[in-house]
Amino acid sequence: MAFTDFDKLRAISIVNIFETGRPFGEYSALAVLNDGAGISYGISQFTHRSGSLLAVVLRYLLLGGLAGRTVLEKSLAVLRSASVSAIGSASKDPQLKTALRAAAATPQMREAQHHVAYARYMLPAIRACAGSGFTLPLSLAAIYDSINHGSWEMVRDMVRLPEPAVRTVGFEKAWITAYVKARHKWLRSIPRLRSTSYRTTFFLAQIVAGNWQLNLPVTVHGYSLSLKDLPPTSFGETASAAGQSSQSANSPSTNLPEPSITERERAFPVPIDVRPPSTEDSKMRRVGKELADALEKYDRIESAVRSGFARADAAKSLWTTVAGTAWQTLWAVVSFFIGLPREVWLAVAIIATVLMIIYLYRQFTLGRIREMQTLLFLTPPAERPEDLRPNQQ
Prior knowledge:
This protein is mostly helical. The protein has two domains: 5-27 and 105-265, Chitosanase, subunit A, domain 1 (Up-down Bundle), CATH 1.20.141; 279-386, no CATH class. Helices cover 60% and strands 4% of the residues. It has helices at 5-20, 52-62, 69-74, 76-80, 84-91, 94-103, 107-132, 137-149, 152-156, 169-189, 198-209, 261-265, 279-338, 342-378; strands at 30-33, 38-41, 46-47, 218-220, 223-225.
């Protein structure tokens, strides 16, 4: 059985509440994430690193959007790159952020965001469910959320259940329950993701309540989602962009035509596979782990090198100050014994003292500059003091 438009709307609204606090999101929502993903934008938190932000901007320009167009066109080159420098550059670009916020008010940007969200996240979720014979709305919502949030394939491969001769609803419930538990445990095990475990907490609560049909109303991360929150037509004015026809949200039993083959091919489908991972998959995961370990070692080495340079710089300043003070003292003693006139001796001593104070002030200022540079390098933009944040206007 194909999922109805009503099923898809509920899954989308639940995940949008997770992402932005609203059932159908905030098109102008913009933040710079502190996990290296860069700019996060729109109703589905399209990010720079994932390439979804680029897809939204390209779709917007293709639809003829005019607001912020010049800036967005100039930013395509940096958005196409997922390098650390490119992500950092875009994250600090106030003109790009202003252009994205301005574009969010246009129907072209709203259509672009819905189109990309449907193609990149909903279609793969539908294909994943279809590939395993899953039909329950909760299954679609849980998989859609995981694909949207990330690491779907990795957590999927953690689930190991005996393969039944026929995949029944009982098997679907068992697999989804095991999957949500595995994802919850994984999210809780990673400090930077721990705060997002409210997503799996919601699904676990619905499983315990037996609400596999996701009957409304339900409380989603503090928001009471009901029928009145759903739009009267599929994806509002963007129904045609997603390859869907309009349907009343109060008629959940009516199925909509599936998207075209072209849209399917753009969706990068990942169906569920409960078989043990292949040797090639195991090798890829091992390579990924080795790469992560190597990056962690690199971070430790870089930190040690930076610390070493800082200590060397501090020691250099200290010994320069000590040497200057010793030389000044020696000069004063020698001058006293060789009988230089007191006026000459005092004048030179004062001049030397002034020069030493100027030098010490210079060293202090350089030290402050280095501290500021380190702070800017290590602290995410959103967590910096107000006077160190890039201009958001």
